[in-house]
Amino acid sequence: MLVAQMVSVHVMAMRCAHHLAHAKDLAQHDSAARALGRLARTFPAQIDALNRHRSHGEPAITVQNVKVEDGGNAIVGNVTQHASVIVPDNNPASAARNAPKAVGSRRRRNSADARRDAQA
């Protein structure tokens, strides 16, 4: 059934692409573009579902050997590096707070901040 759905999504995406290429006014163009975008997002999701079905839903397991010398530190798990800060993936909110600010970025100050600074 999934493969039949994928075929029909592909056929409809090609029809929408044809309608988009031959649109005569803005309304037809927007309608075809919106439909093509939705269908184009649906197809990769169907591919993922098919791959999960074929693998019987079993997650892939990766086994690696890691050697840590004396005095070294090791992190077990997924790690994402933000600028010069290394933060584990399990808490992305704290990573955003601790990440260094980009050069030239400034926070807009509202009137309450200005009054509080003036009183200090």
Please provide a brief summary of the model:
This protein has 120 residues and is mostly helical. It contains four helices and two strands. Helix content is 54%, strand content 7%.
Please explain how this structure is put together.
Helix content is 54%, strand content 7%. The protein is mainly alpha-helical and 120 residues long. A two-stranded antiparallel sheet has the order 1-2. The model has no long low-confidence stretch (mean pLDDT 77). A hairpin with a 2-residue loop joins strand 1 and strand 2. The N and C termini lie far apart (68 Å). It contains four helices and two strands; from the N terminus they run ααββαα.
Helicity level: 40-55%
Classify the secondary structure makeup into a structural class: mainly alpha
Number of strands: 2
Question: Which blocks of ≥5 consecutive residues have pLDDT under 50?
Answer: none
Radius of gyration based on Cα positions: 25 Å
Overall, the morphology is flat
Order of helices and strands: HHEEHH
The description of the largest β-sheet is: 2 strands, antiparallel
How many H/I helices?
4
Whole-Å distance between the termini? 68 Å
Mean pLDDT value? 77
Percent strand: 5-15%
